Amino acid sequence: NFKLYDIELVKRDLMNHFYIRKGEKLENPNFGTIIWDMLFENFTSEVRRLITEDVEQIINYDPRVKVTTLTIDSTDQGIRIQADVVYLPFNINERMTFDFDKTNNIVN
């Protein structure tokens, strides 16, 4: 019996949200992220803005966490997101890094 509690559960829920491409969830087509569709686009300021809005919406969707600082960069393998978040029930700050890999279709 393995169960996730507290901060680890919040992290897992966020990761699950980022694994889903927007439009894939049948009951909720607005759930998920646009990042998977942006991986092969030119990394323009407009693409950065769209991804920033998407990431803020995803993280702030969960009432247990709030994003305080967000950095989005293009990498050789895809897109890297660094988000400084506060786990609200615990008042704990942490930097989360998400690497979206276009060659393997994974997020680390």
Account of the 3D structure:
This protein is of the alpha+beta class. The protein is 32% helix and 30% strand. The protein is built from three helices and four strands; from the N terminus they run αααββββ. The protein has helices spanning 6-19, 35-38, 45-61; strands spanning 65-74, 78-87, 92-101, 106-107. Strands 1-2-3-4 form a four-stranded antiparallel β-sheet, covered by helices on one side. A hairpin with a 4-residue loop joins strand 3 (92-101) and strand 4 (106-107). The mean pLDDT is 90.
Distance between the termini: 25 Å
Question: What characteristic shape results from the CA principal axes?
Answer: globular
Numbering strands along the chain, what is their spatial order in the largest sheet?
Answer: 1-2-3-4
- Which stretches are low in confidence, meaning pLDDT under 50 for 5 or more residues running? none
Largest sheet: 4 strands, antiparallel
Radius of gyration based on Cα positions:
14 Å
Count every beta strand, where a strand is a DSSP E run of 2 or more residues: 4
What are the secondary-structure elements, in order, as H or E? HHHEEEE
- The helix content, as a percent range, equals 25-40%
Strand content: 25-35%
TL;DR of this structure?
This protein has 108 residues and is of the alpha+beta class.
Helix-strand blueprint:
Layout: H1 6-19, H2 35-38, H3 45-61, E1 65-74, E2 78-87, E3 92-101, E4 106-107
Antiparallel strand pairs: 1-2, 2-3, 3-4
